[in-house]
C-alpha cells in the first residue's frame, strides 16, 4: 500500500532513513536477539512518546484548513490514544508493569527532544511543517513492520511486528499519506519541489528521522 | 444527570445564564414559531462554529496533564467531528444545502468573536482557562435540550431538541463535568473558590455565556 | 515612503479598503466633527486592542524563521508596548481617565472579534498568515495619518493625526513592509501570486480590513 | 541583588542546582582551563539557544495577564535579541566566525531538547509553567556570573564573566524575579506552596535545570 508521493520524495532525499529503518534495534526485533529488558525499557519510553505524539496530532486538528483534514487528523489521534497507547498498556501489564508506573516513567532526553521538536514544528509553522515532522514515525514504523513481517527469523517480537504490519496500521499510513499529499497541493501547489518551502520541509523530515535514530539508540541503552 | 460541581458554581454566578438558556431563539424552537429561514441560517453558522469549536477541543488535548484528560477531550473532539457536524450536514442536506455550501458560509462576526475567544483562552492560559470558555456551549445546550423536551408545545424542531435531550448528549455533558472537576482539583485543589484564579475562570465562563447570547441574537437576524 | 509590494497587491485587491481608510470616523477626525465622547470611547477600546495586538506581534517573534524576522517583529512589539500604548495612557490621562480605568474597559465584541481573529491566524497558520492579518491595521493607520495630515480642516485631533503621519510611524510601516516582502519571498518565492496560498492570504487581509471597518463603526457607537 | 522569593524556593528544592552552577564547564571559565575550542563550540550552540530562548520569552508576552507582565517580558526579549545575541555575534566575529556561520550551526540534541521543552511548557500550560522553565537559565547565569567574578583565578574568560556579573544583567535577574513573584501571587495566591500546582512548577524548574547540566556537558564535548 502506497504512503503517497510527498512521503516518497521526502524519504528518498533523507540519507539517514536507512539508519533509522534498519537500525540494530530493528534487527534485534526481527531476529529475536533484542534483550527483553531493552524491549521493556523501549515500551515504557514509547508510552511517554505516544502521549506527546498524540498531543502533536491533536495540534494538527487545530491547524487544519478543511473538515477533511480535521477528520483525518482526528482519526489518527483516536487511533493513537484508544488503540496504540492501549496496546502498550496491555503489553506492559503482561510484563507486570501497570499504567501508573508507565505514566511515572522518567522521560529520557532523546525522547523529550523528539516530541518537543515535533510540537514546536507545529507551533512555529503551519500544518505542513507539522506533518513533515510527524511523517517519519508514522510511515517509518509502517515500513519496518512490513519489512520485518517477511524478514524476521524469530517470533519473539511477533506481536509488535504484527501490529505495524497489520492492514489496520498500513491503512493509517496510507491515510496519512493522503492527508499530506492533499495538504501540500492545497498550500504549495502541484509542483511543490520548486517552492522555497520544499527544502525547509525536507529538513524537518530529516531532523525527525535523525531523532528516530536517537530514539532507537536510547532503546539499546536501558 | 449532573454536570459537576464546578459547572454548577460557575453557572450560578453568571447572571446572563438565563438570558442565554431562555433566549427568544430557544423559545421559538420550543413553540415552533422560529421561522425556518432563521433556523437554516443558524444551522449554517453553527456548522462553521462547530469546526472552530472542534479545533478548541483539540487544543484541550494538547494542554492535558494526564492520559485520562486526553481521553475525555479526544472523545469530545470525535463526537463533534463525526457526530454533531455530521448531523448538521444531514439536516442541511434535507433542506437542500450541500456541504460545500455549508463550508463556504460567510462567518458572521458574532460567530467569529465567540470561537476565537475560546481558542485564545486556551492559547493564553492553561487547560482550565480553556475549559471555562468551552463549558457554556456544551452544558448550556444540554440544559436547553432537557428543558425543551418537557416544555415544548410544537414538534417542528423536535429533531434538534431530541439531539440535545438525548442520553448520548447528556452523557457528554456529564463526562465534560467530570473532566472539569478533575482538572480543577488537579490544578487548584479542593477549595478552588479561595484561589485568585477562581474569579478569572468565572469571568471567562461569563464572557463565553455572553457570546452565546450574541450567537442567538445573530440567529434571529438572518 | 513605500510599504512594500506585497501590501500594495493585497490592498489593491481588497474592495473594502476604501470603506476602512475613508470611514466616517476618519472623516470626523479630519474635520474635527467627531464628538469628544466618541473619541475617548475609541481610545479606551483601542487601548485594549493594542494589548492584544501586541500579543499577536509577540506571537510573530515565535514564528520567525530568521533572526532578522525576529528583530523586526520585536521592534514592533517594543514600539507598541512602550510607545503607542504609552501614548494612549497619556492622552487618556489628560482627559481624566487613569490606566486602571483603561485596563478595566469592558471589551466590545467588535474589538474582541478582531484581535482574536488575528491571534488565531497566527496559531492556525504560519508567519505569513499572521502578517496578512496584522498588516491592515499597521499600514491602514499609516495611510490614514498621511492622508489626514494634508486633508484635515481642523486641528482638534491634530495630535492623533501627527502620531500616524510622523516619520517614526511611517518608518514602522516601511519596516513591516520589508518584513512581509521578505517573509513572502522566503516562504512562497518570487512569484507568489501563482501560489495556492495567495488567495488565502488575500482573504485573511480582507477579513482583517473588514474587522477594521467594524472597529470604526463601534467607535461611532459609544 | 535578590532574585525573588519564588526563585529562592524553587532553587532550594532542586538538588541538581549545584551540579549546574558549579559544573566543570563553569570551573573552566573561572580558572581559564576551558579549551578555547570548547568555548567557541559552546558560543555557537548558545547562539542557537538564544534564538529559541527569545522565542520562548516572546511566547510569555502572549500569555501575560497584565500590561506590567507584558512590559517585563518584552524588556527581556529585547535584551536577548538586541544585546545578548549581539554580544555572541561580536565575540564570535572576533574569533573569525561570521553570523551566517553561526546561524548555520547544526543544533545539538542537548540544545534542542532544552529550548523545545521550555517552549512546550508555555504552550501546554500558562505563564507560570513557562516562567518555571525559563528561570533556571536566567537566574543560574546570574549566580554563576556573581560567583565567578569573585572566585575566578584567570582573566581568560573575563568578558563572559563580566557580562553576567554586570549590574545590567543582575537587574534583569531581579526584574524577572519580580515578574515571577507577581505572576505567582496573581495566579496562586500568597501561600503558593500549598497549591497542587506547586509540585508541578517545581518539577518544571528541576527539569530545566537538568537540561542546563546537559548543555554544559555538551559544551565540554565539541
From TrEMBL, chains A, B, C, D:
Q: Which GO terms of the cellular component aspect does the record hold?
A: cytosol
Q: Where is the Thiaminase-2/PQQC domain?
A: 12-221
- Pathway where this protein functions: Cofactor biosynthesis; thiamine diphosphate biosynthesis
Report the EC number(s), separated by commas if there are several.
Answer: 3.5.99.2
Q: Which GO terms describe its biological process?
A: thiamine biosynthetic process; thiamine diphosphate biosynthetic process
Q: Which domain of life is it from?
A: Bacteria
Reactions catalysed, semicolon-separated, are:
4-amino-5-aminomethyl-2-methylpyrimidine + H2O = 4-amino-5-hydroxymethyl-2-methylpyrimidine + NH4(+); thiamine + H2O = 5-(2-hydroxyethyl)-4-methylthiazole + 4-amino-5-hydroxymethyl-2-methylpyrimidine + H(+)
Among CDD domains, the record links this protein to: TenA_C_ScTHI20-like
Q: Which GO terms describe its molecular function?
A: thiaminase activity
InterPro entries, alphabetized = Haem_Oase-like_multi-hlx (IPR016084), Thiaminase-2/PQQC (IPR004305), Thiaminase_II (IPR027574), Thiamine_Salvage_TenA (IPR050967)
What Pfam families does UniProt report for this protein, alphabetically? TENA_THI-4 (PF03070)
- Which class of enzymes does this protein belong to? hydrolase
- Family (UniProt): Belongs to the TenA family.
**Record's protein name:** Aminopyrimidine aminohydrolase
Q: Which organism is it from?
A: Sulfitobacter litoralis
Amino acid at each position: 500500500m502506497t504512503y503517497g508521493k510527498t512521503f516518497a520524495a521526502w524519504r528518498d532525499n533523507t540519507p539517514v532513513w536507512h539508519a533509522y529503518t534498519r537500525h540494530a534495534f530493528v534487527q534485534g526485533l526481527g531476529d529475536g536477539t533484542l534483550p527483553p529488558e531493552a524491549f521493556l525499557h523501549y515500551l515504557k519510553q514509547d508510552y511517554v512518546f505516544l502521549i506527546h505524539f498524540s498531543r502533536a496530532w491533536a495540534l494538527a486538528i487545530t491547524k487544519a484548513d478543511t473538515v477533511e483534514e480535521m477528520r483525518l487528523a482526528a482519526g489518527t489521534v483516536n487511533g493513537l490514544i484508544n488503540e496504540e497507547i492501549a496496546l502498550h498498556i496491555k503489553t506492559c501489564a503482561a510484563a507486570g508493569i501497570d499504567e501508573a508506573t508507565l505514566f511515572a516513567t522518567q522521560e529520557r532526553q532523546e525522547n523529550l527532544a523528539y516530541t518537543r521538536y515535533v510540537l514546536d514544528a507545529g507551533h512555529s509553522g503551519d500544518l505542513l511543517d507539522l506533518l513533515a515532522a510527524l511523517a517519519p514515525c508514522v510511515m517509518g514504523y509502517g515500513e519496518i513492520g512490513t519489512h520485518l513481517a517477511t524478514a524476521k527469523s524469530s517470533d519473539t517480537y511477533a506481536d509488535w511486528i504484527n501490529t505495524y504490519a497489520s492492514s489496520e496500521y498500513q491503512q493509517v499510513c496510507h491515510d496519512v499519506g493522503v492527508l499530506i499529499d492533499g495538504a501540500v497541493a492545497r498550500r504549495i501547489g502541484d509542483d511543490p519541489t520548486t517552492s522555497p518551502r520544499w527544502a525547509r520541509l525536507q529538513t524537518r523530515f530529516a531532523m525527525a528521522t535523525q531523532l528516530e535514530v536517537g530514539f532507537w539508540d536510547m532503546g539499546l541503552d536501558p
